[in-house]
Design brief:
Helices cover 31% and strands 18% of the residues. By secondary structure, the protein is of the alpha/beta class. It folds into two domains: 252 residues, Alpha-Beta Barrel (TIM Barrel), CATH 3.20.20; 90 residues, no CATH class. A seven-stranded parallel sheet has the order 1-2-9-10-11-12-13, covered by helices on one side. Strands 3-8-5 form a three-stranded antiparallel sheet, with no helix packed on it. Helix 7 links the parallel strand 11 and strand 12. The protein starts with a strand and ends in a 12-residue tail after the last helix.
């Protein structure tokens, strides 16, 4: 049973929240259930961004032109400007022969910067009285900013050190206090990647950035407990789902990933399960991953077909650990059907492509 409770797992230094989590896990175990904490990472980073919004993967605005008169503040074009030691506002003259200094040549009047991001007050640049910026000069301003209005679909930046000042302690404290056999790191639906200056300056591919992040999270978990097994949603690595980066000759980039992370394949349509479920399992076995699981949503035929695919996988010698049910938006109507398909695999002739 996977438990996603970000407002607890990222705050286990709070004694009350820690006691709540410890008691809940003890209760689950008393019923013979093995609770698996999920600390969503990368793609759905709302828990981390609530702690530090500046670790968001931003958009790099390069060389925006603004004209400064006297000590009149001028707003930049975009809201939600990121400011960390590795991503900050840079102001130059137009031929970039001079990089102006904050405090000496200009001051920054901060805008609003908080999660969830919205069209907030913009950051402003103000020329100082003794600035080297000439009166009325047009300067170039470069910065990272966060697009407003994406809800909880924001990604964190894998090139920002402060990201891991949140993720690594949260993983290790979850393992220390709750003692799970398995730890799920989410890692699905990464909508923003390699778009900010922190990532682009490193000249790394998307696959390299994903692999680096996975190794950091996996290593953090094993430093806390060498026996813990890390799991993740497979879609960003799976070319049959969201993993278009790994199609064709780029499939070989799967070999950059840590292979001991269990790949949890989710496919939510009856026909796609039959068409790509087993292919997904075979792909991850081919590249040496330790094991796979399958996941349905509420569609009854999708649930039954996952039972068939899991049986086919076992027959082929694939280490399929089982199938599980995802209950997004409290859609529970397929749970009984999936449970029956897991324990009493339907005949393959019963497969249907209609949900």
């Amino acid at each position: 049973m996977v438990i996603d409770c970000a407002d607890v797992f990222f705050y286990l230094d709070d004694p009350d929240k820690r006691r709540l989590a410890e008691q809940a896990f003890a209760d689950f175990r008393s019923y013979g259930l093995d609770p698996i904490p999920c600390l969503n990472s990368f793609g759905h980073a709302h828990a981390q961004l609530a702690i530090n919004p500046n670790i968001a993967e931003g958009t790099w605005q390069q060389d925006e032109k603004i004209t400064l008169h006297g000590q009149e503040p001028v707003a930049v074009a975009h809201p939600n400007v990121i400011r960390t030691p590795s991503s900050d506002v840079v102001v130059t003259n137009q031929d970039k022969s001079i990089t102006y200094q904050e405090g000496r040549d200009y001051i920054i009047i901060p805008g609003e910067m908080s999660f969830p991001f919205h069209e907030a007050e913009h950051l402003k640049i103000q020329r100082t009285e003794n600035s080297r910026i000439p009166e009325g000069a047009t300067v170039l301003v470069s910065y990272d900013w966060v697009v407003p209005g994406l809800g909880n679909s924001y990604s964190y930046c894998p090139s920002e050190p402060q990201t891991y000042e949140i993720m690594i302690p949260a993983i290790q404290k979850t393992i220390k206090y709750l003692h799970p056999k398995y730890l799920h790191i989410g890692h699905d639906e990464i909508s923003q990647l390699n778009t900010c200056s922190r990532c682009q300056r490193r000249n790394m591919t998307d696959a390299q950035l994903i692999a680096e992040d996975l190794h950091k999270l996996n290593n953090a978990a094993h430093q806390a407990d060498p026996e813990v097994v890390v799991m993740m949603w497979a879609d960003m690595l799976n070319p049959y789902n969201h993993g278009q980066r790994f199609q064709g000759e780029n499939e070989r980039d799967l070999d950059l990933m840590p292979k001991d992370i269990i790949q949890c394949v989710w496919i939510y349509g009856a026909a796609p399960v039959l068409n790509t479920g087993l292919l997904s399992f075979e792909l991850f076995q081919k590249h040496g991953f330790a094991g796979v699981t399958g996941s349905s949503w509420y569609g009854l035929d999708c649930c039954r077909n996952w039972g068939i695919v899991a049986k086919q996988a076992r027959r082929k010698g694939i280490n399929c650990l089982g199938i599980w049910y995802t209950c997004h938006y409290n859609r529970w109507e397929g749970l009984e059907t999936l449970a029956d398909a897991a324990w009493h695999t339907p005949n393959e002739e019963a497969a249907t492509s209609i949900d």
